[in-house]
């Protein structure tokens, strides 16, 4: 993907191939995607489908004591079907045998940052938190938020 394929600031959804839903039974690794300049925008190589990939550092999850919380959220998120919640297609993580690792330099010492990846439907207009953060005084028009709030989860 080129540098123009960015998640933020884009108002048009990237062109998608035929409506091939990513399979949730497939075992993905980071090598199955072309990653854009922004970490969050990806194109699955096999289907050419544009997706979002959220990355979380394992060490930060462990230090923050939120590993179990993340597991619960992933379990709940994978079962929810709601028009206002992006579907979670898959999760995967780096393994310790070198499949995919990010290296960072800290005072000339290299260490590995192992990541957890969440594969979600791409949202061309961003997320609600970002929209609230940029809205004047963090407010939205009630006609926009009320239907989101009142729609029951399935």
Automatic annotation (TrEMBL):
The chain crosses the membrane at residues 105-123. Residues 25-154 form the Protein kinase domain. ATP binds at residue 54. Residues 1-27 are annotated as: Disordered. Keywords: ATP-binding, Kinase, Membrane, Nucleotide-binding, Serine/threonine-protein kinase, Transferase, Transmembrane, Transmembrane helix. GO terms for molecular function: ATP binding; protein serine/threonine kinase activity. InterPro entries: Aur-like (IPR030616), Kinase-like_dom_sf (IPR011009), Prot_kinase_dom (IPR000719). It comes from the Eukaryota. PANTHER family: SERINE/THREONINE-PROTEIN KINASE IAL-RELATED. This is Protein kinase domain-containing protein. It comes from Aphanomyces astaci (Crayfish plague agent).
